Amino acid sequence: MSNEAKVPGLIPDLQVEFLSTHMGVFEAIGSDGHERVVVGHDPATGLRAIIAIYSTELGPALGGTRLFPYPSDDAALTDVLRLSKAMALKAAAAGLDLGGGKAVIIGDRSITSADLWHGYGRLIDSLGGAYITAEDVGTTTDDMRLIGEETRWVVGRSPEDHGVGDPSPATARGVIRAMQAVSNHLWKTDSLHGCRVAVQGVGKVGSALVELLVDHGAEVVIADINQAAADDMVERFGVKAVSTEDIFLEECDILSPCSLGGALNAEVISHLQCRAVVGSANNQLGTEADDERLAETGILYVPDFIANVAGVIHVAAELDGFDPELVDNRINGIYEAVLSILDRAEQDDLTPNDAAIRVAEDRIGREGNGVTFRHGGTRA
Ligand code: NAD
What we know:
Elements lengths: L4 E2 L8 E5 L4 H6 L6 E7 L4 E9 L5 E2 L2 E4 L4 H21 L5 E8 L7 H12 L5 E2 L8 H8 L19 H20 L8 E5 L3 H12 L3 E5 L3 H11 L2 E2 L12 E4 L8 H6 L4 E2 L11 H8 L3 E2 L2 H4 L2 H7 L7 H25 L3 H13 L16
Parallel strand pairs: 5-7, 5-8, 6-7, 9-10, 9-12, 10-11, 12-13, 13-14
Antiparallel strand pairs: 1-2, 2-3, 3-4, 4-7
Helix pairs in contact: 2-13, 3-4, 5-6, 5-11, 5-12, 12-13
Nicotinamide-adenine-dinucleotide binds next to helix 5 and helix 6.
């Protein structure tokens, strides 16, 4: 890595290298317009971390820390740059006053220790709030607690540690707002009464969503590979359960993927009998082409990173001392965000996914260079 500038004394037990844009390392992977990338290395604990801040234009750069045994430093850098940009676009497109950032730590759980998290916490603290971390793949609420012993710039702790706890119910409320926007756009009504919704996956988010949908008078069909989870929904809400294959064949107004990513591929799309897709799952599209494929089939797809953004809203509120009214207002704002994305898509003859990226770029005030969310791995 060229042109690095050491910042001595900032964090005594960490060697920190600050890199700014247009340096060799970025040219190697394709210049991406990141505001700042920070590399933290602490040989004593084995910490090797990269924090990427894409933008703080709209607010502090919020994004989780991913612990992953990357095969090389380059792979880690490429991933963190991709993920941080995706977080920035997600927050901006959803109308949040947050920037976008992400961090990766190279390794697996075997390298973790209280000392490592403390050192990492000090690294985050040195950024003075420009970057706020949270849980992501490989990290836990307990890690966030340890990080929080060294910095206030962390969210996603458990309620016992003054955190806001599970974001799933909030995420489900956000999905409902996105569905109401779709209903308004397609059927000129915000009401979901009588709307037939097929929910694929009734875990933490899906089950909360089913409850809300039933409250709204929707007609709900569900599927889950976990029979007990499916049975529970049938028992509690009287909804119909079908097999995990048949859920994609259900004639319905809205299909709501709430399980794992990649549910929508060419084969599945060719069988869909819905008018819109609005779900919480991350990375619902199997490939980039599936976005266009859905549009060609006449199915309106609300980008997953907008439909599920309430998870981010919920954890971000930890910073403000969690004001439920404020959180509700922000979650309600997903409705307007989806409507403006759908309008933009119609106006500019774009897919909603591409329109969302344009909306985000307009808000951030600069053009992106083609990063998409389709394989973006954006996690709330
Ligand atoms: P979860 O693990 O609690 O629930 C997932 C459910 O999907 C489980 O019940 C599982 O049995 C089921 N499932 C798995 N494969 C399936 C299949 N092939 N067909 C049908 N069901 C299947 O997870 P969650 O927290 O509810 O999250 C669901 C999705 O939403 C994930 O993609 C997650 O990344 C995303 N998301 C969650 C949140 C949140 O607040 N929890 C926020 C943003 C995005």
